[in-house]
Fold each of these.
Amino acid sequence: MPFQRRRDGLHLGLAEHERGLLRDLVGQLVTLLEEGDHADPALERLLPPGYTGDREAEEEFRRLTVDDLTEGKVRNARAVLASLDVDRRTPLDAATEQAWLRSLTDLRLTLAARLGTTAEGVIAPTSDDGRVLHSVYEWLGYVQEVLVRSLSR
Amino acid sequence: MTMDETELRRSTSSDVPWVTLVWDDPVNLMSYVAYVFRSYFGFDQKESERLMMQVHTKGKAVVATGARERMEMHVDALHGYGLQATVARADE
């Protein structure tokens, strides 16, 4: 199981190759947030508009919120990266649990933007690379589902 | 413009409340959306599930109503959770 509830708290139960994959993905997420082009569909989805149909209000809202929102997402991602290197016997603290929850969401939103979406969900890819990305996306959904259930108990 | 007209205009614009809308997206897990409604707004499980299902089936749901600044605060927080949320006037 990716997360395990024990008496002293929630533990990361990921295999080493899964940790490696997450380090890579979360590292890319940090790069996207810090250096990405704001016309990138993935960034548009991570930093969405606060108003529809009122350009002036939307621009003002973005001006006031986008930097903190971006920094918050970067902070979460860095907390996840740090927790991947902590001794397995140490449980996650509440702030790190939340960082995982939100970073997993941001990763899934980013991969979904890369795969393309319809109203029904992500588009099933036909290329080999796309299929790999799609299976990573599905796996992240499973990891997040386990985490949500662990936190809901 | 007379005094009455100014008063009238001011009262109509401030009496219309604002809302926080959450929009359906094909990516976020239903369990996660319900979790966010529970943990951020403090709704009970039943209300969180109801709102989540409304987002899922109707495409959007009003999750809060009140002053504009407060709705902007909610939308900003929901963006932090990765939900698609917007501020709108209640009569839109």
Amino acid sequence: MKLVRHFAMGTAVAAVVAGWSGAAAAQETLTAWFTKGFYKGEDDALLAVVDKFQKATGVKVELSLYATEDCVTKSVGAVDAGTPPDVGFCTTYDFRTTGKWAYDGKLEDVSDVIEPMKAEFQPMALSTTFLMNGKAGKKSYYAFPVEQQMMHITYWKDMLEEAGFKEADIPKTWDGYWDFWCDKVQGSMRAKGKRIYGIGHPMGIAASDTFYSFLTFANAYNAKVVDENGKIVLDQPENKKAMVEAVKSYANIFQRGCTPPSSVNWLDPDNNVAFHNRTTVATHNATISIAGKHMDDMNNPSLTAEQRAQAKKNYEDNIRTAEFPLKADGSKMTNLAAVKTAVIFADAKNKKRAKEFMAFFMKDENLRPFVEGSAGRWVPTTLKGIEAPFWSDGKDPHRAVVYKQYKDGTVPFQFVYNYNFTTVNAENVWAKAVNRVVQDKVPAEQAVDEMIARIKQIAG
Amino acid sequence: MTAPLSAPREDKSGFTRDRAMWGAIMLAPYVLVFAVMVVYPVAYGLWLGLNWNSYKALFADPIFLRTVVNTIVFLFVAVNLKFLIALLLSGFFVQQRAWIRIVLVLFILPWAVPSIPTILSFRVMLNPENGMVNQQLFQWFGIMEGPGWLTDPTLAFMCSIFVHIWKSLPFWTLILITGRLAIAQDLYEAASVDGANRWQQFRFITWPSLATLYVTSTMLSMIWTLGDFNSVYLLTGGGPGDLNHVLATLGIRYMRNNNLDLGIASIIVAMPLILPMVFVMVKRLSKGADA
């Protein structure tokens, strides 16, 4: 009897164990954390890729979508705790963490996935994922270039006309361009008794818009900050001189009262808000999200027919997306691009499947709908992607400008060459230098000396 | 001669043992909560703050010294101004008249309502372009560019102090009213009979009676003011240009930049300011309990 009982018990335990392992085998999983899209189209495209991958491999993808800030904060915590997901794609990784994670050996080398598809990417976009691993002491591909963003100028064409000007009146030269918005357009509006500002000019320390805009100004003056080995070259006389001019130029717009005074406290959405409120005639913004908001409204069924019609008119007629003017030396402006990176973590549990998933996700037929789902907010990193009709047919007034900027060529942020520049940007030494000039009234030369000293402390 | 009314030795020790055991059982939840909620977080924070490099980095950050100066100025101005006004107002509100009681109820409102919406409403009102204040200046007086309430560093700092005082003044006024009400009225009547004027009554009766409460409250307020995050962060975010941070907001700024070590360090450097105040506070309160 005892023997029978032991046998029954043993059989039951074996059945449970077999069932368990069988269930585990049937439920191979892959965890992926993504930033939740601004638009439904992004999330729908992502879910479609996940669905296709699950059907093709039988692997269950546990996908979590997080708000922009939560995504990176949660990822940093998980990496520190040694419990990251298998795949991570947050749209602020590039600004905040990718370079440092690669340097600290927290990312998986994905060269075996990237190498076969190298020729498909825009070279600059791809180069931002070739990062230094401090532990291994060598550079390699540690991330996937999923999509990117660039700086654009956005202005109200109808307000420009109200001020008595045509688009053809907008100068192309650097100083002439800003003078036009400051003196002529704003001046004309003020003469009509309107409290309207020429430019929405981000100055806030806590806004990534500020350092993105300022570094575009630094490019306009050819102020080189680091070389391709990550060595700081800003203290070289020609670069320092150029940076002083960039600080003066950026500060000057505030000093002349051409931007709302509150721009010194602006966070990232605030220049968009000021523009939508028609407090400013023009602004510079990374992505075409300002125009995109009106496109979203014109298709929003919860709005009235009149509101949708107005949004359509705004998107198609009233709002213009434009390139930056020529550089201070008269040459063509270089477009500073931020490449949004996906990664596979070194501590991931299922790296093999993670690589399979990313190789699948980065295929043109999967990646393109995802990028295009953002309605132009994000730009492709692949050569095929940018040549798709969505960008290249010239039918959309805003995307046509983005396409042209892309074709003009892009340059990366400094943090691609020296990851410590993520800290430099987080601390926003650039905005601090400008604020030293406008708030503390110190000469731009002194502000730049302080800037260089601080950059060397952080990234030297 | 009667026998002493005492329990047998064995029973007494059993009783004592039981009391001690019940005492320990009753105390255990408190000790546990104290350990989890106070001892562990403080010890963990101190442990995180043991990184010497964090302090080197903190002192190397140009914004830090400015923050320390801001914190000291904020403490000195806000606390003293607040208590001076509270002292004056407590003299007004202590009067037993119906309309003054109604005013007192209205006066208490800023303290009673939640901080976040009220301070954010100040932020909206003081916005230089669209805020109610500058809009009115434009509409009434045609002033195109009103004062930069939150964009001029000095004005913004003063606004933060104003909001802090506006928010916490009712509480401290109430405390001082309570202190004034505890003073025996016959002292004032006797002083009045002796011909003492209002100032002499204040100097020789009110102030000596209130002094202990005033000083103790001031120290307590200093500790709270040092930790006041809302008034500065919600109004200006420490701006413009990171120029108006205090230690409470600087720590959060570091943490938002994924720099936990510096955030902890910036909070721990306030310890030399806080600990002496806590020590003096406890000593004063102990004296009060002994008296």
